[in-house]
Amino acid sequence: MMTAGWRAVEAPLRSATTACHPRPAHPPQAAPRGRFPFVRTVWHPLDAVSWPATCAPQRRASQSVVGPEPPSPRMGRGVASRSDAGVRVSTASQQSHSTPVPAVARPAAGPRPLLSLVIPAYNEGQRLGATLRALAAYFGAAGFPYEILLVDDGSTDGTATLVAEATAADPALRALAYLPNRGKGYAIRVGVLAARGDYVMFTDADLSIPIAITADFLVALRGGYDIAIASRWHPDSTNLVPPPLFRRVMGETFRWCVRRLVISDVRDTQCGCKAYRAEVARRLFGQSRIDRFSFDAEVIFLAARAGYRIKEVPFALHYSPGSSVRPIRDSLLMLRDLLRIRSNAARGRYGQLDAADLARRLA
Question: pTM for the full model?
């Protein structure tokens, strides 16, 4: 049963649809971080995450992204294994370091948001503006604190300029960026690890899934589920504007492969809109290893493996053209990544289940 306090949050939301140590602060050898001008200071999304003391990356305060660099070797398990951001950064002293990181706007001071919404963006300059206006209208009427994290996945169009202008105008927006392009899964992982909200949600930049589904997600998560996902295969879902034939065939084929190779209990692992309890999201994305489109199947596989409760939510799909998916090449890469998931699990690369995981699976 929902508490009266939650009803007070839910009502305006629905009306709108109408062995580790904390990573030390940086820079320890220079000066308190707040003394540096904002434009020179880069907040890293893993600042708030526990790191193994033997492999915490060393960074300095003044950093800017300047180009690609070969990824550093993976380090251990969990979040630390995903620290190879694949970008090169320059420091004031040109000090070399082995763990490149994305450039991230420091979060604004204020109340902890109820919801963090992550939006990955790769060459979305043409439609991101309309999306941000729709989000501002929806969440502005929701009546609870929120943040929107825009993750620029190495865009080469005007996305970076648009994101900079938007974040300067709206304190609820935070910009995250890196070079080069690493894939949707990588972008969402960066956003999830930087999120501050009690719940973490992500959706596509085209809003093909109506943002009104947020209300259903929050009700499901508040009601005891660990994860809520939009499902095209839910009996109550509809296609207001269906995708083209090649996308439907590609989706059906990949879904068949997922159910045979990875997980069969979830009808739709690939829909681009999901929400998590924050601690669950951080754990699962910290364990994940796949950077491109099959990351969804990997994260849901890890969730089911750990016994987390998953709620599938119906919605009305409104397909938007302009996808960056390359049908033949990406289909082959996605199939390869599904095989990687099975291989990683067989080799123990996702770690061992703990007592809490086993208890959830038996519940």
Answer: 0.70
